[in-house]
Predict the 3D structure of the following.
Amino acid sequence: MWAVGAGSLASSSYIVFGKPSKLAANSSHILTSYVVAMCVGIFLRYVVEMHLLSRSSLFVEYRFFFDSFVAALAVAFTLIITARLHMDHPPAAGIALVLVLDVRDYQTLIIILFSVIMLSFFSFALRRWMCDLF
């Protein structure tokens, strides 16, 4: 499932280096969107694990469908919140999906966050020399 997280970073890299004139390639949009996605994913995972699954056998029995629904909610909430903040960067929603469906350890999350910070830094530092590739 972490392939989705890596796919999100690859999509972000494509936007930053392929279309740097887009608002989604702005470093503040990238950072804000990924932080929102991480917060939404962690929060929904916590709500599911701690509150809903421990109280009802219905959620345990239909775990796959319930997890899929919550993952879709995480993506939707991430996109809505970032749109309301005017900080759109759609690839970040994949991180919320990963955090709801597959959290094994948070070390990978730290690696992704570090990668996002580096990508934002390069987006900011190289902006004046980059041009749209298509």
Remarks:
- The chain has six helices and no strands.
- Residues 2-129 form one domain.
- The two ends are 31 Å apart (CA to CA).
- Residues 27-52 form the longest helix (26 residues).
